[in-house]
Design a protein that fits this description.
With about 260 residues, the chain is mainly alpha-helical. It folds into two domains: about 110 residues, no CATH class; about 110 residues, no CATH class. The protein has twelve helices and two strands, in the order H-H-H-H-H-H-H-H-H-H-E-E-H-H. The longest helix is centred in the C-terminal third of the chain and has 19 residues. It starts with 11 loop residues before the first helix and ends with a helix.
Length: about 260
């Protein structure tokens, strides 16, 4: 007899959806039998079909009991609740605390990301989100979770858009150079580097679902090194932030030489 599946740990996308509901009712979330908890349970099951294999989900996957328990975990982290000495349900996970630290004091952003996750579930399903991340070892799952990270990766892989962006650059300046560090593959590698440059989607992840089409102005041509540095940690850098990082290092190097 095959062992019955147990439910997987909550992932960041799920925690954001649950935290969004909690923050809307802070510090007293809806009851276990409420419409809001039931609706969140249904939403999490839709999401679960996308990010977990059926063998990983038990019959109790993200049911109302489990959803309500997660809300109680968040309440145990809420100073508005614990200030009077109350503790709440304290057996939460490290990921709960991370989500709380990032979003609890910015409920507007939490709501924006949660809405983007909901909207992503209405889009046609392509490759699994896990496959999107596994295939790009240089991309760290963003703070907004794997669903929106997967959308971002797929947009960066859109060959037609990337080629149009390259043609735009060639027409404008006559060559392909990294928009962060200025690296030119053709200048360094000759014919082998001709036409090569990676493409980065600059639109914030929480706004991806609002764009039915990606515009060329949403893309930046950058070298492989800069692209990996942008995506290396959970808080992705912007193009401007990475440029500033390089500028400061160059200035420091120049002062040391002088």
């Amino acid at each position: 007899m095959k062992p019955r599946p147990t439910n997987p740990d909550w992932v960041r996308d799920e925690l954001i959806l649950a935290l969004d509901l909690y923050l809307k009712h802070r510090p007293n979330p809806p009851a276990k039998t409420s419409r809001e908890v039931a609706e969140l349970s249904k939403l999490l099951n839709r999401l679960g079909h996308r990010i977990f294999h059926s063998s990983e989900r038990a019959a109790t996957f993200r049911n109302s009991d489990g959803v309500y328990m997660k809300l109680m975990n968040f309440r145990s982290l809420d100073p508005q609740y614990t200030v009077s000495g109350k503790k709440g349900l304290t057996a939460g996970a490290k990921a709960d605390k991370e989500a709380w630290r990032e979003f609890a004091e910015n409920p507007k952003r939490c709501a924006e990301v949660a809405q983007a996750i909901r909207a992503s579930l209405d889009e046609p399903r392509g490759a699994s989100f896990t496959d999107d991340l596994d295939a790009d070892y240089g991309i760290e799952e963003a703070a907004e979770g794997r669903v929106l990270t997967g959308q971002h990766v797929r947009r960066e892989r859109n060959r037609k858009l990337v080629e149009r962006k390259k043609q735009q650059a060639l027409k404008s300046i006559g060559k392909l150079v990294c928009e962060v560090c200025g690296f030119d593959f053709e200048a360094h590698y000759g014919e082998r580097g001709s036409g090569f440059m990676e493409c980065h989607h600059m639109t914030p992840l929480s706004a991806l679902s609002e764009h039915t089409t990606t515009k060329l102005r949403d893309l930046a041509l950058i070298c492989a090194n800069c692209h990996r540095m942008i995506h290396r940690a959970k808080k992705w850098l912007t193009i401007a932030e990475l440029r500033d990082c390089l500028r400061k290092l160059r200035e420091l190097s120049e002062r040391e030489v002088a």
